[in-house]
C-alpha cells in the first residue's frame, strides 16, 4: 500500500512538470538557514495632526527596511526534485514585539516543492505584485517609500495561498491564488478581516496575482497584476465579495556601471472607494554607490481620476557601509498634499499623519544589521 501511494504521488508531480523521473528516489537531510535583519531608527516628523505638532519616535514597522527573523530549509529528494520551507516573522525592534498584527510568522509561512519545471508553494506568501516591483523600486520598504502613497504595497502577501514560479534564460513568471487572503480579524491591527474559505460565499476574500519579468545584466522589465476580492465583514470598503481591488503595474530599471535608474507606473481600480475608485501611481528613482557610501533618490506621485487630490513624495537616502552586513543611514522625505489628500511623509508607524492639504517632512537616522 505504501509503495502504491508513493508511486501515485510521484506520477502526479511528473504531470506538473516538476519532476522528470517517475519514482521518488534518494532522501537527504534538510539543511536549515537562520537569517534576519534588525533595522532601528530614530525619526522626527513635523506637521502631525490638526495642531501641526512635531513627533519624535523610534518606529516599530520599518527603518530602511523591516526587521525580521526567518528560518529557511531545503531537502534534496533526488532526480532534480527538492522540498523546502520558509518561516519568517516581522519584529518590532522598539519593543521586541511582533508585527503583522502579532502573528508568529506573519511575513511568510509556506512549504514548497521545486524541480525542473519551477516551484510550487502552499501557505502565507508574497503576492506576485511584490516580486514584480522588487528590482525597480529603489527604496523598497523604507520608512519613506511607495507604501506612504499605497499602504498595500508594504503588505502584498496573502494567507491560504498556492503559488507557482519559474524562470528560463532571464525570463521569469509566476502566479498566486488565495482562497482567503487575510485570516486575521478586525480587532487585530495587522488584519483586514477577510478570511474567506466560506461555504456560504465561495467568492469571499479570494485573491490572485500574476507576474512576467525579464532581467539581464544591464536592464530589466516587469509586468504585474494583483486582485483582492472583498467579504461581508472586510475592512476598507471591500464589504462584499462582489467588490474588487485591482492593481496593474509596468516597471523597469537600467544599470549604468555601478549606478542604477528605475521607473514604474501603476493603475488601480478599487470598488471599495466609491468616491475615488481609480488612481494612478508612478515613480522614478536612482542609486549611486561611491566607496562605502550608497546614495538613493526617488520621486513618487499618486493622483485620483476626476479629482484634485494628489500626493507627491520626494525621498533622499544615504547609507554608509561599516561592513558587508552593517550600515548606518539617514533618510529624508517630503510629501506635498494637494486638494483633500492627507498622505504622510513616513509609513514607519501609524499615528503621524497630517490633516488634509498639509505638507509634511520626515527625517530618520538609523542602524541596519543583517545576519
Tell me what the structure shows.
It is a single chain. This protein is mainly β and 371 residues long. The chain has one domain (27-370): Beta Barrel (Porin). The protein is 5% helix and 51% strand. It is built from two helices and 18 strands. The N and C termini lie far apart (45 Å). The model is unreliable at 1-16 and 18-26 (pLDDT under 50).
Low-confidence blocks of residues: 1-16, 18-26
Count of alpha and pi helical runs: 2
Backbone structural class: mainly beta
Helical amount = under 10%
Estimate the strand proportion.
over 45%
Q: How is the CATH topology named?
A: Porin
N-C termini distance: 45 Å
Give the arrangement of secondary structure elements.
Elements: H1 2-15, E1 31-48, E2 53-57, E3 68-78, E4 81-92, E5 97-98, E6 108-115, E7 118-126, H2 128-133, E8 157-168, E9 171-178, E10 207-215, E11 219-229, E12 244-256, E13 259-270, E14 278-290, E15 293-304, E16 310-321, E17 326-338, E18 360-370
Antiparallel strand pairs: 1-2, 1-3, 1-18, 3-4, 4-5, 4-6, 6-7, 7-8, 8-9, 9-10, 10-11, 11-12, 12-13, 13-14, 14-15, 15-16, 16-17, 17-18
Amino acid at each position: 500500500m505504501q509503495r502504491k501511494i508513493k508511486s501515485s504521488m510521484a506520477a502526479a508531480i511528473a504531470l506538473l512538470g516538476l519532476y522528470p523521473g517517475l519514482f521518488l528516489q534518494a532522501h537527504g537531510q534538510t539543511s536549515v538557514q537562520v537569517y534576519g535583519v534588525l533595522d532601528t531608527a530614530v525619526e522626527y516628523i513635523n506637521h502631525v495632526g490638526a495642531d501641526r505638532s512635531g513627533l519624535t519616535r523610534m518606529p516599530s514597522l520599518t527603518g530602511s527596511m523591516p526587521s525580521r527573523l526567518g528560518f529557511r530549509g531545503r531537502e534534496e529528494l533526488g532526480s532534480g526534485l527538492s522540498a523546502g520551507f520558509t518561516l519568517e516573522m516581522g519584529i518590532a525592534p522598539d519593543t521586541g514585539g511582533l508585527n503583522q498584527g502579532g502573528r508568529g510568522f506573519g511575513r511568510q509561512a509556506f512549504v514548497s516543492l521545486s524541480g525542473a519545471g519551477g516551484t510550487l508553494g502552499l501557505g502565507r506568501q508574497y503576492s506576485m505584485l511584490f516580486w514584480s516591483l522588487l528590482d525597480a523600486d529603489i527604496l523598497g520598504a523604507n520608512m519613506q517609500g511607495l507604501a506612504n502613497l499605497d499602504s498595500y504595497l508594504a503588505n502584498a502577501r496573502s494567507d491560504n495561498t498556492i503559488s507557482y514560479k519559474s524562470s528560463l534564460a532571464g525570463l521569469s513568471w509566476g502566479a498566486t491564488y488565495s482562497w482567503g487572503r487575510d485570516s486575521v480579524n478586525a480587532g487585530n491591527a495587522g488584519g483586514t478581516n477577510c478570511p474567506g474559505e466560506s461555504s456560504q460565499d465561495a467568492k469571499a476574500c479570494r485573491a490572485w496575482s500574476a507576474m512576467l519579468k525579464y532581467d539581464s545584466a544591464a536592464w530589466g522589465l516587469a509586468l504585474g497584476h494583483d486582485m483582492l476580492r472583498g467579504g461581508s465583514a472586510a475592512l476598507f470598503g471591500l464589504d462584499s465579495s462582489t467588490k474588487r481591488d485591482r492593481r496593474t503595474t509596468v516597471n523597469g530599471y537600467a544599470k549604468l556601471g555601478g549606478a542604477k535608474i528605475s521607473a514604474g507606473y501603476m493603475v488601480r481600480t478599487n470598488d471599495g472607494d466609491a468616491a475615488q475608485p481609480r488612481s494612478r501611481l508612478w515613480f522614478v528613482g536612482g542609486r549611486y554607490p561611491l566607496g562605502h557610501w550608497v546614495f538613493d533618490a526617488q520621486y513618487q506621485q499618486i493622483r485620483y481620476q476626476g479629482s484634485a487630490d494628489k500626493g507627491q513624495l520626494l525621498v533622499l537616502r544615504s547609507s554608509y557601509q561599516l561592513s558587508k552586513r552593517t550600515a548606518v543611514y539617514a533618510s529624508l522625505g517630503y510629501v506635498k498634499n494637494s486638494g483633500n489628500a492627507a498622505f504622510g511623509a513616513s509609513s514607519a508607524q501609524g499615528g503621524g499623519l497630517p490633516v488634509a492639504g498639509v505638507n509634511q517632512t520626515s527625517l530618520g537616522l538609523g542602524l541596519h544589521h543583517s545576519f
